[in-house]
């Protein structure tokens, strides 16, 4: 007897979506890849060329895809601005949902109405073996009480200008990149923390056009929680050397770091100029296995009806903090909150 | 239309065999895992518990397994001493063969009689992304002429005594571990090199019982080729910290190293005693993806009838050098060869 | 003919002062160590035991020491609160001055009145070979325009409580530790930068008594300059593993880091728990050679009447920024400045 | 009262000698640099320009220098071939001797006749903080019984050809470079070890002229001791990236390494090609502090009549092993010894 499989559809075939498509096909032992939604002609063409032969039905309308007969779940990898409506439509069709970040606040309520459905936000670092090892070290108490975190999420400079076009749909650098660091903060320092203040600043160093969409290509943020825990972020899209995410989690008795020495693999070249190692060039080179693990665990939770490895409320809280950081980045002003988490108003005299 | 798949059987379900079984199941898009050979009752039981549900037919006789109807290929992962006879039987049944190292000299002749069949020896490092990157750097000429190599293949100390029992079947530490380093040597310094001298020495440091099977748990070897290229090996089974393979390939204009800083993942723990990172504990933690890639490429070559990524003659040459090193290790004497590769006799006066 | 020497006196024999004393003795080729000022009985006793035999005259009054006949220069290593008055008294005696950070604003005016005297603030990192190498890389243009900096200055946790006593005299964690990072910021990003905003937050994690002196043992700061350059700081006194300063300088075309992998020396221990290296335990283990170089270059500038390697105005600017960070740390509020550098008033509505 | 100083003369002002001269001047608190021996006109000129002003008397005859009135000790840094006669002449003048490696066997006897004199061979690594830390770890038992050692002593490629001229005077690559690794072997594995076999091979890869002086620019050696301890060496003069010495000391319960990640300092440059660090370019960049410490400790031992930190017999034993390796390198043959350390004769049949 073979195990039952999860009948899955994929929405969105952009850079990340194409990677998901490949990953889903590799998980054919537990997942039946039955349908996809290709919003643009280019994505449709790619799907015809790459997915049809695997029996995947291609839709140009999201609503039609979620009504595909026998569908169990949908993986949403479209632009951030349509996540909310697409998740709601999927829930209406009684589908489990794995949605790329970010998620909006309203979704939590919508998901609560269908407690039998699994709704998970794709925070891939939660499925990365290194972050998980760091989490395990932290949970074991080896660094005492985790109190401070310093993270960076830095992308390689893309001369092609894709970033600028994409900026309007992404919600901004803290929503798009920084949200991973915020999620790490809640994961490592505490999911119940109450925000005290948020301050951010940055610059449109190599992409001045971003100013017109209220975005930046470099930003630094400082987030303080009531009780004294603090997080510090650096997000960038102008790295010459490649993709580099890292995190230092500092506790009262020690520190654990992830990726303090970025490396593509185990190779070093010794030459007249010194010793050189390469660095991953994009998120996929760094997180391919995390994406794969995320998908596998999501499928298992749906098939076995077990608890998801992460909480939807936390994903929503991350979006809220990211939005506050993005606002502070644009206004240049600190935003403060009282102990009930209510925003305090400030003014220049 | 779905692509055709390779119908594969697996022989041997020991430590490595079990890993292969898992890997084969993951490659279900290109491989049909149809049969396995479980030589021992324990292996048979494991197969019943883990493979039956995936439709794998279990045999307790190798001859019967290779006669399984519709079989295309066999992956041999049994004890080294039976590799030769099992490869020959598989070839007699017109099966492609992927055989764990080591291979014997006779096999090359046997394989040459069936030029339509693919016969490959499982040197997993040839499929590891880091060694491949190093090879690409070398091929590009970035280190000039690759002239010297220093390798180590070191396993974690196993208090359980498995090693001692296994020693009689493995052929000795140079045949079992060192052969990977020898293969790297030929791959990086040249597959046509002619052996000039071989010297080895070592000790049964933590496993004195190995002396009775003419084996050691630590050994160092020095291999010289006509023309001046030299290789230096260290193989060990007593590492406290884990599994650690590394290679330095030294050329006339630079050096490339693989794994000079072993690490389990990207985590570092900072504590009162300093900064600590973990190390892979066994070959699987280090080479899981290489094994997977090896299997995938072998399947592709069989299905598409393309050239295998490595040459059987080189695999056989590796065994010859390993055997000479093992002999030198036991006798304590250097072994020398003339420019035709013929062995020179030496004596103590 | 032997070269002339600088006749030097040392004020203060605390932890840092004792190290300076040792360093001065080692520079006997260019410096005559003629006098010292020992403010406390314990320091006086130490001087008797360690300096008398080298011909150093010991004073218990600073005013008397600066009047020591034939004195050329004084190195001030007393508590931060008395730096200002002591520098002024030294200038009144026509002495060159090397003063430990921090320096106050008034000093710049006082020093300007004696243009023939050398007045330098001891920012030891400016004399460290690694920071200098990073500076040279930056100046050469290898990272493009240096735009962002992320620094940390973290001390080992001191269970002895010295920190708490010292806090009242030090001016606070940003004045005492963070000032080095601020100096790096000005050195690498530009000494003419105009401050736009300063935000800090932190906690008294392991030393709650620090709250009573308006200090903290961990703090994070965010400093923004008009024009878009930004700095991010982390200062701490609770590190379990030792002393760890580091800096990432990020430019438009690359990044240079200093000390991303702290290590006491070149040793790694491989053991059952992994691979461990030690870390410097205090500032001296990390900066001994910088202190020595600083002293040597200061002496050379005095003897040869050459330009000092760093500008007093920058040292003063660092103190101003540090004071703003310390204020923000205590009030929890962002402080903002207009393009003329004038402070803007803010209020909670 | 000032402490007495050691009145020291320096013989030889080549590359290493000039460095010693600088070091001696820096130790002016304990050493009076009174005389030097400049064998060549160029060295004489350098001494006039650099040492006369410090009161150093310059000799063109070694015999005259060792008769300098009031002299206590001599530091010999001339060519290896004259070490023996110069040490004997110094002992005849009742001088303490610090002599650069290598030392010859006869010296041990000569030194034994003057037990009141200090005679030390300059193995600088014994004074390096990292090797000392590794030694302390080993002595503490943290790696169990130190049983195997893998070392390399690799110099940067020198296009200038100095190496070739120098080769005739140096005694060959194992005498000149490898001797440091041999000394480490005896220091870490045991000074009483009895040699069992020696095997070496190599090539004159970039300096084919070295063949005419029975030398090579790359060599690998394998040294076995009775009882099962083994050492493996790699020495080279063709490194593109700089100077790189390293050692792995492997024990029954762990491993300690020195310099597995060579670095000039704490700087890393992140650029479009990856992450690059520089490497020390020569022995001085790596060992300046070791040389300084060696000189200081030698002076202290002479002044206080305390035991030297290393044994002359061990230095002599290192030369014997180095000579055997050099012979094996040239003949291509293994050399074997019985348990009394007597050489066994071998022949090709």
UniProtKB/TrEMBL annotation, chains A, B, C, D:
One of its GO terms (molecular function) is oxidoreductase activity. InterPro entries: Gfo/Idh/MocA-like_OxRdtase_N, GFO_IDH_MocA-like_dom, NAD(P)-bd_dom_sf. Signal peptide: none annotated. Transmembrane segments: none annotated. Residues 131-256 form the GFO/IDH/MocA-like oxidoreductase domain. GO terms for cellular component: cytoplasm. SUPFAM superfamilies: Glyceraldehyde-3-phosphate dehydrogenase-like, C-terminal domain (SSF55347), NAD(P)-binding Rossmann-fold domains (SSF51735). Residues 8-112 form the Gfo/Idh/MocA-like oxidoreductase N-terminal domain. One of its GO terms (biological process) is NADPH regeneration. Pfam families: GFO_IDH_MocA (PF01408), GFO_IDH_MocA_C3 (PF22725). Belongs to the Gfo/Idh/MocA family. This is Gfo/Idh/MocA-like oxidoreductase N-terminal domain-containing protein. It comes from Exophiala bonariae.
